[in-house]
């Protein structure tokens, strides 16, 4: 089973960009579909973006589509989230998550993910 460590969070002004990275340790990272979720204070953890095990398929929440880009590098055991045109409502703790899968599929359900990182804070000032 992989372990996940996120990095890249911070404070940015509205309209700016940040790139989050998630590094996985362990074997067979290419067998894992990956997701990014976020949780704002007082709110439930929500899906942001997902990518299939091969990286060929991607999915985004409606409110980040066109602004965020998820990518997966199986050779380097990393998944990244490029966040552009950030808004104050993007402020949250962002979590990387992994699910072991056979098919090249994506899930938006947090219950389908078995491994989570510790989270990284993203704060967007208006």
Question: Quick gist of this model?
Answer:
The protein has about 130 residues and is mostly beta strands. Helix content is about 0%, strand content about 50%.
Element layout with pairings:
Elements: E1 3-7, E2 10-13, E3 18-25, E4 32-39, E5 46-51, E6 58-60, E7 68-73, E8 78-83, E9 92-100, E10 115-116, E11 120-125
Parallel strand pairs: 2-11
Antiparallel strand pairs: 1-3, 3-8, 4-5, 4-9, 5-6, 7-8, 9-10, 9-11
Poorly predicted ranges: none
Radius of gyration, in Å, reads 13 Å
Helix/strand class: mainly beta
Total helical elements: 0
Give the helices and strands as they follow along the chain.
EEEEEEEEEEE
User: How much helix, percentage-wise, in residues?
Assistant: under 10%
Please give the number of β-strands.
11
Estimate the mean pLDDT confidence: 97
The largest sheet is: 7 strands, mixed
Gross morphology is globular
Beta-strand percentage range: over 45%
Distance between the termini: 40 Å
